[in-house]
Amino acid sequence: MYQIVKDQLDRDQSVIDLMDAMERVYSFVDEIQSVPDKINTLEKIIDSILLQTFNCAMFIQEYAGCGFTKKAFSEVFTHRATQKINEFTQKFIEMKNTLDSGIAINTAVVSSQILGKVDSTAKQETLRSLQPANMKQFARQGCLPGTRVDVVDLISAWVAHPSKDQNILWLHGLAGSGKSTLSTTVARLFRQTKRLGAFMFFDRNVSEQNNPGLVIQTLAYLLALYDHRIGDAVSAVIEKNRNIANDDVDLQFKKLLLEPLGGLVDLQLEGPIVVVLDALDECGSPKEREPLLKVLAKEFAHLPSFLRVIVTSRPDSDINCQFKSERHVLPYQLDITSKITRKDIESFFRYRMAEVRTKNPSLSLPVEWPEEQRIQALAERASGLFIWASTACKYIDAHDPEERLVTLLQADMGLDATSALDTLYTTALQFEGRSTDLAFGVDFRVIMGTLLVLRNTLSLSTLIELLAVDKTRPLEHIISQLGSVLYNNGIIRILHPSFADFLSRRDRCKCDVWFIDTTLHNIRVTRDCLDRLDDFLEENVCNLTLSREAQASLPEHIAYACVFWVEHVCLIEDTSCIADRLSAFLFKHLLHWFEAMSILKRSKDTKEMMRRLRDWHANALPGNPPLQELISDAYRFSQAFSNIIGKHPLQVYTSALPFTPVDTLLYRKFHDESRYPRIVTLKSREKSWSSRLATFTDLEIRDCYCIRFSPDSTQVMASGRFGVFLIHDVTRASSNPPIQGNFSRSCAFSPDGTWACSVHEDGFMRMWDPILESSIMEPIRIPLGGSQEARFLVASPHGTLIAYSCGRTIYVWRARSGTKIFESTPRTAQTDITCLAFSPNSNLVVSGSENGDIFSWDLSSGGEILGQSLDCTARVLSVHITFDGSQILSVGNDWFVRVWNVTLGTCKLATPLQVHNGVAQLAAFSADGQQIVLSTRDGTIGLWSSSSGVQIHIITTNLSAIVDLALSPNGRVVASASERSVSLWDATIPANLTVNLSHRQWHAPWIKNGPCITYSSDGTLLAFSATENKQPNPIILILNGKTGIEKYKPLRGHKGSNIRSIAFSPDSLRIASCSNDGIRVWDATLGVRVSAFTEALASSIQTLAFSPDGCRLVSGARDGGAIYVWEASSGTAILGPLHGYGLRPQSESIDSVSFSPDGGRIISASGHGIIHVWDAESGATILSPFRGCANDRSVWPRVAFSIDGTRIMIQTKHADFKQWDAITGDCIATRPTNVHPCGAIDRFTFCRPSGWIIDLTTGFYLSYPTVPLISGMCSSSSQTSVAFATSNNIYIIHYPPRMLSL
Questions:
Q1: What is the phi/psi pair of residue 555, to 5°?
Q2: Exposure of 2 by Cβ count < 10 A (0-12 exposed, 13-18 middle, 19+ buried)?
C-alpha cells in the first residue's frame, strides 16, 4: 500500500514538473516582442506549441478529475498516465530548445488520445454497409481570422470542461447570421487538435444531406473512422445486424452509438470528442425529422460525457420545442445586434474589399478604398447578417466595383435583418435594368425555378441535359451573370437559403420578374424528367449480358430523373397537367425504370417510391382506375421483387415479370412469351397478388419453432434452431441476426413489450430487452424433459409472471426475480400440453393437451380447479380466457370452438368453423379472443370469428410445413414460421372465401438428391415423385413437359418409402424408379408395372439409368458403392456387383450412373465426386477412379458421357461443371460444349447456395426463382426448359430462343 501511495505522489510531482516545463516554453512571449521579425520565421513552431498546450491541458484536466483513489489503484490509468506525462514533458523541452535555436525540428504533437485508423479492408467494407451520407466539405468557408472570437472561445471552453448535465450545445440564429461559417471554423479548430469525431452539415438541396434517416448511421460511420476502437465496436454491431442501416433511428442510436461508446472505458480517460451538426433545420421537413429530434433531445443525454455535440440551426419551432426544456441541451443564441458582431462584419468588409483592390490593379482604386465611412455604412446595412456582407462583397466584385458600391449604398436601408436581405437581393437583381429584359427574366426564372425545386444539386452540364431550354441563349450565359447569388464550382447552387426564401415569396421580392412559383416550376421539372426518361429508357438500355454481376452506369441527368421523378410528381396538386403524361410514361416505361434503378443500385428505394406514388394517385387521381391498378401492381411488384431486381438489372424481365401473377395488369401489359420466360405449374398459378408482405429465408432464420408479435404489433420474434430473432419493423420487414444464439423452441413478449423471454436447449430461460437486445437478468435454470416433449411459454397480462410447460408439467416464475412459485402436473394428464394462457387478472393459468384435455389452476391457492376431457380426442390447438375470467375458449383440430365454464368445467357451446377443408394443424386466438387464426396441413391460413364460426379471411401460402403462426394484436398481420422461412401476411386484403381445397394434396419429399424430378430425353414428358394427401406410399406423376398438365395417370406400387431415382427410357415409353422396396419398371402410357426387382440387393439402390437401347438398367447403391446392370424386362441382374472406389471406403454412396452412347461403357460418380469407368459387358475397369471435383465435400454429382462418347461430363449441386477425356482422364474443359440430350447432365442448373438458374451452355445467369426451393438438386431440364419442385408444387420455366443464344 505504501508503494502505491508513493508512486502516486511521484506522478503528481511529475505533473508539477510538466507544468514548469510549459511555463518555461511560454517565456518566449516576452522575448519575441523585442524581435517581432522572428514571428514569421517561428510561426510553425508557435502553432505547434499552442496545439501541444491544448492537448496537454486536456490530459491534466482528466488526470486531476479522476480522484486520488482511482489514480492510485487503476493499473491501466497509472501506466498510461506515467507514460503520457513523460512524453508531454519531453516534447515541451524540445520545443523550448527549438525556440532558443531558431531552427525548426520535428514538431509532431503528443496527444493524450490513442487514435488509430480502421486497419483492415474488411472492416472498412463492413462500415460502408451503413450507407453513410456523403459529407464532402468543398467550398465551405470558415470565419476570417480574428472574427467570431467570442463565440469560438465560448465553444472551446464548453468543450474543454465536460459537464454531465449538458452534452449538446445548440447554437441558433436567424438565416444569414453566420452559423455555417462558424460551424466550419469550429470543426477545423477541433480537427487540428485531433478532437473532431464527426462534422455533418445539412443542405435542403442535396438529397442525402437532408435525409434525417441517414444521420445516425453517418455519425456512427464518421466516428468509426475517427478512432479504430469505435470502428471495431461499430463493426461488431454491423456484423451481428446487417440490416441496421434500415432500422429506425432510435434503434440505430442504441446499437451504433450508445452501446459502442458506453463500452469504451479508455475513451473516457482521453478528453472530449467533438461532433458538429450544422444547419439541422435543413435536415428534412419538421415531420420527417421528428424521430431524429426526439433522439437528440431525449436519448443523447445518455451518451458518455466526453462526446460533445454542437448543433447549429435556425430557431424553427419544432427544434425549439424539442430542445428548450432538455437539461442536457445548452442553448446559445447568436446575437446579430451586438457590438462584437458589428466589428466582425466591419473586419470582413475590410478584408474582402482589399481583395477586390488587389485583383483589379488596372482600376487604380485608392489604397484607402473604400473609405472607413463607407465600410461603416455597409456594416450598418448588414444588420448583423454575415450572409448580407458576403453577398454584398460578391455583388461589388464586378467589372466596375465602385459603381456597384455606390448603387448598393444608395439603396434603401432595411428596417430589420429580413428587410436588409430583401433590399440587397433586389439591388443585385435590378442592376443594369435586368428587370425590364424579358428574355433575361424568362431564363432567370427557368434557372432559379429549377434550382429551387430540384431535390439534389447538379452540375451545369447535367442541368443543360435535363432542361428543355432555348439553345440560342445557353445556360452558361445566364449563370455567368448571376455570380453574386449563385455558387458555380462545378455544381450549381443558390448562394444561401435566404435567397431561396426571398425568391419564393412575392411579398418579399415584390416583382413578377424575380418571383418563383415553386408549384409551377415543379410541374415543369416533372415534365422534363419524364421527357428525358421517355427519350432514353428502353429494355437493356446498357447492352448488358446475363452475367452474375452487372457493371453499368447512366448519365447524370437520367440518374436524377430516375431517382426523383416520383417525388416531383407527388408534390403536384393540379393533376390535370400531368395525368396523361404520367399514364403514358408508366404504360410504356415502368419496367424500364425498374431496370434503370437496378443499374443505379437503388432497387431497394423503389418500394417506398411506388408506395408514395400509389397513395398520391389514390387521392389526387381517383377517376383513373387503369392507372391506379398499374401503380398498385408496381408497388406490389417492388415489394416482391426489388431484392431480385437488385441482383441484376435484366432480372426485371427474366425473373420478376415471369413470376408476377398472371391476371395483374402489369403482367398482361408487359409479358411477352416470345421475349421473356413463361412459367407453368402443376397447380394453378397465382392469378392476383398474394397476401404475403415479406418472407425471410436467411439461413439463420430457418427452422423456427415459435413466432410471436409484440404488443404494439410492430415487431415479430421467432425462436428456432439458430436462436431468437427479431423482425424490428413489420412494415419495413427487416430482420436481425440472432439475439440469443442458442437453440430455442419457445419465446414470449411481456404485455408492455419492454422485455421478452425465451427457453433454450441449454437448459436456461433468458430474459432480455428487445430494443437494446441485451440481457436484463441472469438466466433461469429450467427443466427440459425429453427432446420430443412440447414446450410453451407465455407471460401474464400484468407482466409479473411467466408460465412454461414441458411435456405434461407446468411451471410458473416471477418475472422480476426469476423465483419459481408454482409447479404442477395434472392428475389425469395422459398427453403433453399443447398450449397455455393466463386469465386477464393473472390469477389463473389454463392449458390444452394433445388428447383434448383442458386444465386450469388457481395460482393464488396452487390448486387445480378444472380438469376436463372433451367428448372427442381432438387436439387442443389454442386456449383463451375471456376478459371477465369466467369462460375458457378452446379450438381443436376438429374445427370446433368450445366455450367452457371455468367454475363448473362444463362445455357451454361448441361452434363449428365454417368453410373449411383439410386437417387443422395450428391455431391462435387474437388478443381479445374475438378471432381465430388457423392453418391447415396444405398451407392454407384462415381467420374466423370465434363466436359465430364465420370465416373472415383466407390466405393461400403454398407452404406445407407451417410449424407456428400468430395474429398481430391489431389484427392486421399474420406471421407464420415454416421449415425454411418466416413469412408475414396481410390479413386485411379482401380474399376469396371459397377457395377450393378439394384438389389433390401432395408433398414432394426431400431425399438425399432432393425430390426425384426427371425430363424425358425429348423434353415432352416430366416425371416426379410425391406423397399424396396422408397416404404413406409414394407415387409418380407424369406431366406434359410443356404445359405442366398431368399426361398419364399416377404410377402407384412402391411401398412405404420415398422414391430415390426416376429414369425415362430413350423412347420415353417406359419409366424406371427405385425405392427401399426395390426397382420398378413402368409403362408410362398405361400406368402399369412392367417388372419389379424386389431382391435384397435392389433395396439399397440410390440411382439408375437406361441403356441407349432401353434393354438394360444400370444402378448405383447408397451403401457400399455397388453397381449392377439389370435386364429391364425381367429384372435379372446380369452384371455386378462392381466395386473399386479405392479413394474411398466401401461405404461410399453412388449418386449417379450412366451408359455411354454405344452402350459399351458405364460411368459412375460417388457422392464426393469420384468417377469410375467400367466395361458394360465384363465389368472390367476402363478408367481407374479419379476425383472429378476439386474438393472433398459432398457434391451430389450428375455424370454422363458426351454425345460422341469421347468426354466425361460431371455437374454438381453447386453448378460446378467439368469435362474429362474419357480415355486418359485428363480435365479438358470447365464448360459444356455439346450437352448429351439423353444424359444426366442438365443444361439448366441451380447455382448453390445463391439460387441462380445458370445455362451451362452459354454461362448466362438466366433467372432467379422467387419461390422457396427444396434443398438438394430438385430440378431437371430439357434443352429449352427447367422444372423444379417446391414442397407442394412443380414449376416449369420455358425460356425463349433469344435468351439461349450467345
A1: -55, 150
A2: exposed
Map residue 986 onto helix, strand or coil.
strand
Strands of 133-178 (E only): list them: 168-172
How much helix, strand and coil, in percent to the nearest 5, is found in the chain?
Answer: 35, 25, 40
In sequence order, which residues have a C-beta less than 8 Å from that of residue 945 and are 6 or more positions away? 930, 931, 932, 952
Amino acid residing at 191 = R
Q: What is the pLDDT of residues 140-192, one digit of tens each?
A: 888 988 899 999 999 988 988 766 679 999 999 988 889 999 999 999 999 98
304 in Cβ contact with 267 (< 8 Å): yes
Q: What are 916's three cell numbers? A: 373449411
* 1204 and 1181 Cβ atoms separated by less than 8 Å: no
pLDDT digits (tens, 9 = 90+) for 87-97: 878 877 777 77
Among 762-766, 781-785, 1233-1237, where is mean pLDDT lowest? 1233-1237
Rounded Cα distance, 548 and 546, in Å = 7
Pairing of strands 196-201, 273-278: parallel
Half-sphere exposure of 1029 (CA within 13 A, CB side): 8
The residue count of the chain comes to: 1302
Residues in CB range of 1127: below 8 A, 6 or more apart:
1111, 1112, 1113, 1134
The secondary structure of 883-944 as a DSSP string is: TTSSEEEEEETTSEEEEEETTT--EEEEEEPSS--S-EEEEEE-TTSSEEEEEETTSEEEEE
Residue 622 preceded by cis peptide, ω within 30: no
Helix (H, G, I), strand (E, B) or coil at 1165: strand
Radius of gyration of the chain measured on its C-alpha atoms: 38
Q: What is the dihedral of CA 511, 513, 517, 518, to 10 degrees?
A: -120
667-670-671-673 Cα dihedral, nearest 10 degrees:
160
- The H-or-E segment that residue 3 falls in is helix 2-25
Tell me the C-alpha distance between 756 and 774, whole Å.
Answer: 10
Summarize pLDDT for 1112-1156 with one digit per residue, the tens: 999 988 777 789 999 998 888 899 888 876 545 455 788 889 999
What's the CA gap between 693 and 732, in Å, rounded?
10
- For cell 442504441, name the residue: 254
Q: Are 747 and 717 in contact (CB under 8 A)?
A: yes
Show the cell assigned to 620: 389526387
CA gap 944, 1060 in Å, rounded? 41
Determine the longest span between alpha carbons in the chain, in angstroms. 119
Q: Is the dihedral of CA 215, 216, 217, 218 positive or negative?
A: positive
Question: Containing H/E element for 1255?
Answer: strand 1253-1255
SS3 call for 987: coil
CA neighbours closer than 13 Å in the CB half-sphere of residue 27:
13
Q: Is the pTM of this model over 0.85?
A: no
* CA pair distance 606, 794, nearest whole angstrom: 39
Integer Cα distance of 477 and 484 in angstroms: 14
| pLDDT tens digits along 224-239 | 999 999 999 999 888 8
Residue whose C-alpha is closest to residue 712's, from 696, 699, 728: 728
Burial of 8 (0-12, 13-18, 19+ CB in 10 A): middle
